[in-house]
């Protein structure tokens, strides 16, 4: 019998808590991670596979229904991929240690296997060879390792260091499964599985951009002759031979007449790129006869592969104008991040980083090759619309099953979370991150709410049948608005900014107007959250340095706006103890049965433990008149009375 290994020593928790009996359960998803490269993979029918946070998502682009499976509890999902047979998919985890690659069957979604190793903290990219016999993965920070796996045996074949920064994409050649390409932040790298005297090795060569500006490379494809086509941030399509750029493809070269000795030198030309902005997608279609590119300008463009792979450019860098066979404008405001072909529907599903999933009709390669250059007449159809980027704030409607969301994209959206679907949206006049939303409980209609934006703007809005109405807009801060608080009677508003100012408003009784009272400069600048203390007419401000300040709210009659809106800040330091110290006797009692010497080790660990202070991230008024204060560390959400205050002190 094997001798059991000694269990890793675990520090006892600060407090013992009863097991929580949660009476809620997950209801529905609304939103996707729209900025992920290679972020959408076709399964069967109208279902596409995506990853968002710690969830694996199955999105039906016809019905709009989103199903999901949770990933690891203490981590997230780094990458997903679908096997060429479409009977399996893999989920690559992100974890502090020992992330796995889990294999599931489709459509049962049952786990049937695991790949172990390959990364220390998680995976950023994954793909399969054309015949499905091999899989390649790339690890994220800190190892960034490329691993090639045997799909049947679940064993690792080869592994090598990929690069020193983020890798977005890994790809097998569809013509030679021994050739791979990886690309990401500021690089592209070409790989081959070569046989050497010491066995098979994974050998890589880093691409050299030469005269071109170094670029992020998320999209590329391997041509039949071994050359590689890639996109770039400048909108050029690059043709790589070996580790060098052989040719740069553009829409138009702007030539000017040159006389004399200058005509004998290598010329540098101005040009129009193939796309306006980054090319994120490069795909081969029709057995490699057609190249599809797509990017931040919202266009999908089709090119003849044979023309690209034999092109000879002129100038420095070498430029060439290929013929565009066909183009599709998905949407004037679209920024294409990824796409996948749903073969059962003959449609492309396009991931737009503005938060939209588009359905675009698939054009057969024979039709593209046999037609004259043109554009798609049938418009793309928006299957689902969400916030682009992160959802940074939300407020539940007091009258129906809707929620208003605000995001990094500067949009405010009304979402029916039962359907679930987006009802309508509003782009704020100055596009910026929406940091806070608040519906008024005292509003009889239940339609009015406040919105605060990071650029310092505060808006008063009202829901309508078909759109939001902007009732008023103010800008109390020049930048860095981070939080707001409304008092219990909803008659006063306080906003705070990272530049160290707090601004106060009176709210009209009919909630038709916000009346600016004035602002003060806070004694501490690194403010993060705010709440009203109705008992003392103060705003409680939480700081990054771990302190809580009580700021006396001014009254309108105390201000003389003909002189200034600024008033002297009257403040007090609020006494809080962020962490309760464990008594020595408790430590000894908890460790009574352990081996001799363990107490001394734990006391040393306790001394080395981080003792704060920790940032104050949350102050929430409770019905009893006390407050919940949350700090930036584990087990630090405590209830306080916050009545002990020290006037005019910050220490």
From TrEMBL:
WD repeat ranges, renumbered to this chain: 272-303
Gene Ontology CC annotation, any one: cilium
Subcellular location: Cell projection, Cilium; Cytoplasm, Cytoskeleton
Keyword Coiled coil: yes
Origin: domain of life: Eukaryota
SMART domains tied to this protein: WD40 (SM00320)
InterPro entries in the cross-refs: Quinoprotein_ADH-like_sf, WD40/YVTN_repeat-like_dom_sf, WD40_rpt
Name this protein carries in UniProt: Uncharacterized protein
Record has Protein transport as a keyword: no
Pfam families linked: WD40
Lineage: Eukaryota, Discoba, Euglenozoa, Kinetoplastea, Metakinetoplastina
Record keywords: Cell projection, Coiled coil, Cytoplasm, Cytoskeleton, Repeat, WD repeat
PANTHER family xrefs: CILIA- AND FLAGELLA-ASSOCIATED PROTEIN 43-RELATED, CILIA- AND FLAGELLA-ASSOCIATED PROTEIN 44
């Amino acid at each position: 019998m094997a001798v059991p290994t000694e269990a890793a020593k675990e520090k006892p928790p600060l407090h013992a808590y009863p097991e929580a009996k949660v009476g809620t359960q997950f209801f529905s998803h609304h939103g996707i991670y729209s900025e992920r490269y290679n972020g959408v993979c076709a399964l069967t029918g109208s279902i596409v596979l995506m990853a968002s946070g710690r969830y694996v998502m199955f999105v039906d682009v016809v019905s709009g229904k989103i199903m999901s499976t949770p990933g690891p509890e203490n981590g997230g999902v780094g990458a997903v991929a679908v096997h060429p047979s479409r009977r399996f998919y893999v989920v690559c985890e992100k974890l502090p240690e020992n992330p796995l690659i889990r294999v599931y069957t489709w459509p049962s979604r049952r786990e049937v296997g695991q790949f172990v190793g390959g990364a220390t903290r998680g995976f950023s990219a994954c793909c399969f060879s054309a015949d499905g016999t091999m899989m390649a993965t790339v690890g994220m920070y800190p190892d960034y390792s490329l691993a090639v796996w045997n799909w049947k045996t679940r064993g690792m074949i080869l592994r090598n260091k990929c690069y020193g920064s983020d890798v977005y994409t890994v790809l097998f050649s569809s013509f030679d499964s021994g050739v791979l390409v990886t690309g990401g932040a500021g690089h592209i790298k070409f790989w081959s599985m070569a046989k050497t005297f010491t066995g098979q090795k994974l050998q890589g060569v880093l691409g050299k951009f030469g005269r071109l500006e170094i670029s992020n490379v998320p999209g590329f494809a391997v041509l039949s002759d071994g050359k590689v086509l890639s996109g770039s941030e400048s909108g050029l399509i690059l043709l790589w031979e070996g580790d060098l750029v052989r040719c740069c493809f553009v829409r138009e070269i702007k030539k000017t007449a040159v006389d004399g000795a200058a005509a004998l030198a290598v010329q540098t030309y101005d040009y129009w790129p193939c796309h306006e902005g980054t090319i994120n997608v490069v795909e081969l279609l029709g057995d490699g006869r057609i190249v599809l590119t797509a990017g931040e300008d919202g266009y999908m463009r089709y090119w003849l592969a044979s023309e690209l792979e034999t092109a000879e450019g002129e100038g420095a860098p070498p430029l060439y104008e290929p013929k565009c066979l066909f183009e599709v404008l998905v949407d004037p405001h679209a920024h294409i991040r990824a796409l996948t072909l749903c073969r059962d529907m003959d449609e492309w599903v396009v991931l737009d980083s503005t938060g939209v999933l588009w359905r675009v009709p698939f054009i057969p390669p024979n039709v593209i090759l046999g037609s004259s250059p043109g554009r798609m007449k049938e418009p793309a159809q928006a299957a689902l619309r969400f916030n682009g980027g992160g959802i940074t704030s939300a407020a539940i409607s007091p009258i129906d099953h809707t929620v208003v969301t605000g995001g990094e994209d500067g949009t405010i959206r009304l979402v029916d979370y039962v359907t679930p679907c987006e009802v309508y949206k509003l782009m704020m006049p100055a596009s910026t991150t929406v940091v806070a939303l608040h519906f008024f409980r005292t509003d009889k209609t239940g339609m009015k709410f406040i919105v605060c934006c990071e650029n310092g703007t505060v808006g008063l809005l009202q829901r309508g049948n078909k759109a939001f109405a902007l009732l008023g807009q103010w800008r109390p801060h020049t930048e860095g608005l981070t939080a707001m608080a409304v008092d219990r009677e909803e008659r006063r508003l306080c906003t705070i900014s990272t530049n160290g100012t707090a601004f106060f408003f009176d709210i009209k009784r009919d909630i038709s107007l916000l009346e600016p009272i004035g602002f003060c400069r806070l004694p501490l600048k690194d403010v993060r959250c705010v709440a009203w203390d109705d008992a003392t007419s103060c705003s409680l401000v939480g700081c990054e340095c771990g302190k809580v300040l009580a700021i006396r709210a001014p009254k309108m009659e105390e201000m003389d706006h003909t002189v200034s809106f600024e008033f002297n800040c009257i403040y007090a330091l609020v006494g809080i103890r962020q962490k309760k110290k464990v008594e020595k006797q408790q430590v000894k009692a908890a460790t009574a049965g352990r081996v001799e010497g363990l107490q001394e080790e734990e006391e040393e660990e306790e001394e080395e433990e981080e003792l704060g202070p920790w940032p104050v991230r949350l102050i929430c008024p409770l019905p009893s008149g006390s407050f919940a204060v949350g700090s930036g560390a584990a087990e630090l959400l405590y209830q306080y009375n916050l009545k002990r205050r020290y006037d005019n002190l910050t220490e």
